[in-house]
Amino acid sequence: MRVRTVLLLSLVILLQGCASSNWRAAHWFSNKSDKIQFDLNQLNSDGLQGPSDGLRTLSYEFCIPDDINAVDQVMAIDPTLVVYKHSRGRVQCSEKEYLAIGHTGQRNYQDILNKLANLNYVKSIQEALFE
User: Fold this and answer.
1) CATH architecture of 24-127
2) What per-residue confidence (pLDDT) applies to 2?
3) pLDDT of amino acid 48
4) Is the pLDDT score of 6 beyond 60?
């Protein structure tokens, strides 16, 4: 009985330690938002995908309002973004929107994607497929 209590207490302490530390394995490879329309599990911790001899970043695209404040806001979140005024992209931005394209080859790419997805005006973030 005493051994069982010690084991249970040890397990509780271990779980509390994981929850309170910077350990974020569950977050690391999960989409926090339904707006992110590609599987983050295909990426390694550096934001790269593909075979070991051909790793590459994943590019993504989304639409933002044609407003300088929105442009400033998304570029402050994601320094890899390029914003296109006259391109609709595969996501089919409207005439009143700009196309934004970024990539996962940066530190904390998961946090960046989630911050972008949390913006009310970002409706969807999709993988950019350049054909």
Assistant:
1) 2-Layer Sandwich (3.30)
2) 60
3) 92
4) no
CB 112 within 8 A of CB 106: yes
User: pLDDT class for 57, splitting at 50, 70, 90?
Assistant: very high
- Give domain limits for the chain: 24-127
Return the closest-CA partner of residue 89 out of 56, 125, 118, 36. Answer: 125
- Where does residue 99 rank: exposed (0-12), middle (13-18), buried (19+ CB within 10 A)? buried
> Rounded to an integer, what distance in angstroms lies between the CA atom of residue 31 and that of residue 109?
12
Among residues 82, 65, 68, 60, the alpha carbon closest in space to that of 119 is found at: 65
d(CA 117, CA 62): 10
